[in-house]
Design goal:
By secondary structure, the chain is of the alpha+beta class. The chain is built from 3 helices and 11 strands; from the N terminus they run αβαββββββββββα. Helices cover 22% and strands 37% of the residues.
């Protein structure tokens, strides 16, 4: 019995030592939903407040949101988000999140009335930072192919309640965002699951030896 308790204590110590944030990013919406159980927050309404709006437990903040028309035929919502200026925005959640994702479209043709970038077209890179209050949890960058429906998703082993999206290269053009999803269920990292399985196996083995 003492050996089993020692093994369990060692397992707890190992899991605690690996409890720093670990993120996984996704470029496939179906895989992301299957892995996280994330659910849509609801459709973006027409003509949101340019300074910010609330939807599905999230608050979106910027100074120049624009959902006046269907900017992108690639994103399935009737209205999607454009930003009049650099595509930077913040998202604050009412409660902890463990996963977050959205559809993304970056056009490359400035001449189109729809799906156009309405400015010189540049290939842009974005950085997404996850925070718990003011404390950074982790961050990642993405650059998706132009002129296609793309997906950006992330899971974290540590809860976050704020997301900062920043266009970090080639900023004054147009990209469009929609179909946001969130997940509030913790997603254990594979290493933690492996340690847990190993510990449970060890406890079972110790119990069988004691009973024999």
């Amino acid at each position: 019995m003492n050996r089993a308790i020692s093994l369990l204590a060692a397992l707890v110590a190992l899991i605690s030592a690996s409890a720093n944030a670990a993120i996984v990013t996704y470029a496939d919406r179906a895989v992301f939903v299957a892995a996280t159980g994330a659910a849509p927050i609801g459709a973006i309404p027409q003509n949101v407040n340019p300074a910010g709006f609330a939807l599905g437990g999230l608050t979106f903040s910027n100074s120049s949101f624009n959902s006046s028309i269907n900017w992108s035929s690639k994103i399935s919502e009737p209205f999607d988000l454009a930003i009049n200026g650099v595509e930077n925005f913040d998202v604050t959640a009412a409660g902890p999140l463990f996963s977050f994702g959205f559809d993304f479209h970056e056009p490359s043709n400035p001449a189109l009335a729809q799906d156009g970038c309405f400015a010189p077209c540049f290939d842009s890179t974005f950085t997404v930072t996850l925070l718990n209050g003011a404390i950074p949890v982790d961050s990642f960058s993405f650059n998706r192919p132009d002129d296609v429906l793309a997906f950006v998703g992330v899971t974290s082993t540590v809860a976050f309640n704020r997301i900062e999206v920043r266009e970090t290269t080639n900023t004054i053009d147009d990209e469009f965002f929609g179909n946001f999803l969130i997940g509030r269920t913790p997603i254990p990292e594979p290493a933690t699951l492996a340690l847990l399985g190993l510990g449970l196996f060890g406890l079972g083995f110790a119990g069988r030896r004691r009973a024999s």
